[in-house]
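hiii, so i know i said id send this last week but things got crazy w the move. better late than never?? heres the sequnce for the chain we talked about at the cafe, plus the structure i predicted for it. fair warning i was half asleep when i ran it
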Amino acid sequence: MQRPTCSGIRIRSTQDAHRIIRAVELNKLPLTVRRLDGEERRALKSGDVWVWEERGAVNDATSLGIERWTDGRTYGPSRVRDDFLFYTERDAEHPERPSKWARKQGASPTGSSPYDQPRSSADDLESLIKQTYSVFIQDERQGMKKWHLTAYFAQGHVEELGTVDDIPFIASLPIPEGRYRSARNPKNRYKDRDENRRQKERQLAHEFRPIQSDGHFVPHRYSLPPLTLPAPLLDHAPRPALGLTPLPFLEDNPTPRTHRCPEDEKVLRFLTQGL
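okay and structure toks below
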């Protein structure tokens, strides 16, 4: 069973997110390498933080990235604050009611079923909220990578959660300047697209780079056998022009008479006499 990257903390700012991502980069915290299974989804709780890498065009299908994050829950529309997106959980069958997680956390004040009670601000405070943050990271070997941080908390219990300041080896981590660029910044998205294009061009240039071989340039990976032409096409020596046989030679060397059958001789004599 996969464990969260860290538990029992809340993400207050992008600096907190960068510290956690940096700890994952340095293998001080685990990177989530696959989607959550059923047991892991049911175990989600307030204070869980997951860091995972997106599988995109550059890092192909054989890599350990995740195509998209799924947790089996239903959320309302996203809300934006700074570079974070926030999603409040809703009941899949009754979107106007609090989530099942929230109903389990709080009891009805009258002892009746929570479905019989109007939705209150207390229900909102108990609903699980998903907080997401995405960055681009330039890697020397893999090129541009896209990492995501997904955190969960309940508004009514957020003050009970710790912070990265409570974890000494994370709080003291230095963050390289410019190491993480927010994926929500349009300029960074364009830079990522251009970097992916340049990365593909560099890969193609490496695969098909021409090299010197026997005095001829041939492709680096794929080469064709040398073209072999038939011998007559390769012979460029001039040939004498063909002409007619000289008349004196023909007069001195008459063509020998060919023997014919008797029937042909009779027909020829008959025709000759008629002329």
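btw Residues 14-202 form one domain. thought thatd interest u
miss u guys!!
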